[in-house]
Design brief:
Layout: E1 3-4, E2 10-11, E3 43-49, E4 52-57, E5 63-65, H1 70-76, E6 81-86, E7 109-113, H2 120-125, E8 130-132, H3 140-147, E9 152-153, H4 166-176, H5 180-200, E10 209-216, E11 219-223, H6 228-234, E12 251-254, E13 266-270, H7 276-284, H8 287-290, H9 293-296, E14 300-303, H10 306-313, H11 319-333
Parallel strand pairs: 5-6, 5-8, 6-7, 8-9, 10-13, 13-14
Antiparallel strand pairs: 1-2, 3-4, 10-11, 11-12
Helix pairs in contact: 4-5, 5-11, 10-11
């Protein structure tokens, strides 16, 4: 999942500090097609994406998620999940607690794990009607291989890989499943929760926020505007500081000296996956960090629990939990 940007900016995996650097999917084949081969039978229309257009099957009953978190929207929209990519978390079938009840007895096949590529033979063995990877970094070669198995909806071309907002993701998957109306309702419900929290916290409006993470010993990074964790805060009224303007992906390494750029109104450290202690140890021995006004004034916070993961996962199912838990903590920093 790494992508190198201009200069020293290096895009890390979406969950830096949870599973280390998540590797990019390896190329699965050398053929190249711009469009799916239309499925037999009736079509429910088409969806355009990074690699062309996919003709949708009518009422797909067996769905494989090859994206980072597409399984949540699939389940929220009533789809039956027969395969999923298990990024991290050690939860059954790669499905997090907020989505587990919606499995309804299904036992999806794990078709890949963090640090590995999609196992095409396992995808094929699930005999899917539809393959979904909207929040992904699928390559042309992988898409060609997947679309030979079943109609495949890849990441949209208008966003960076792993950069689709949850609203767009839910809309696209709703269309793919023939559940446009339900998708609209779900989005409206979560949007209202955001609006309510924003209204209840006027102090958030216009405040600069920076979200960072530990990259390695003595190494830090910050998330860019397209990262879901950053979008979580901007949807609540926060704004991005100028330092994020140069980040074209969703994560960029910064040097220890560049930590001075982190002197914003609120500094949030993401430390999921048990990385909190390592992060604290690194920050404690970094003098330049201790001199930041945001640190001395107590406006820096480390998020490392289930709420942090819900924010990071950032789906129509996980966001309501994050909205209950995180804003009160942030509000306490601005008192």
């Amino acid at each position: 999942m790494d992508r190198t940007d201009a200069g020293r900016l290096t895009r890390r995996g979406f969950l830096i500090g949870t599973s280390g650097a998540l590797l990019a999917f390896a190329a699965a084949c050398s053929s190249s097609n711009d469009e799916d081969t239309p499925p037999s039978g009736d079509s429910a229309g088409s969806i355009t994406h990074k690699f062309g257009a996919t003709e949708l099957p009518e009422d797909p009953q067996r769905i494989v998620s090859v994206g980072y978190n597409d399984q949540d929207a699939i389940l929220a929209l009533g789809g039956t999940l027969v395969g999923t990519f298990d990024w991290y978390g050690d939860y059954p079938y790669g499905v997090w607690p907020w989505a587990q009840p919606l499995l309804n007895g299904a036992t999806p096949e794990i078709i890949g794990t963090a640090g590995t590529t999609i196992q095409m033979e396992k995808v094929a063995a699930t005999t899917p009607d539809l393959i979904v990877g909207t929040y992904s970094g699928l390559t042309q070669a992988q898409y060609d291989k997947l679309s030979a198995i079943a109609p495949t909806v890849a990441q949209p071309k208008e966003f960076a890989d792993y950069g689709i907002p949850w609203q767009n993701q839910t809309t696209i998957i709703g269309e793919a499943l023939g559940q446009q109306g339900k998708a609209t309702e779900l989005i409206a419900g979560v949007d209202k929760k955001f609006a309510d929290v924003k209204t209840a916290n006027p102090a958030f409006a216009g405040k600069t926020v920076l979200v960072g993470a530990l990259k390695g010993p003595g190494q830090f990074g910050v998330y860019g505007p397209e990262d879901p964790k950053v979008r979580f805060f901007t949807e609540l009224g926060f704004v991005n500081p100028p330092v994020t303007d140069q980040i074209t992906g969703n994560f960029a390494e910064i040097s220890t000296e560049q930590l001075s750029l982190a002197d914003v109104d609120v500094l949030v450290w993401y430390a999921g996956g048990g990385y909190g202690d390592k992060l604290r140890a690194e920050l404690d021995k970094t003098p330049i960090y201790q001199e930041l006004d945001v640190v001395k004034d107590g406006r820096a916070i480390i998020l490392e629990d289930a709420a942090a993961e819900a924010m990071t996962w950032s789906t129509v199912l996980s966001l309501p939990y994050a909205l209950e838990q995180i804003p009160p903590r942030i509000a306490g920093l601005l008192v």
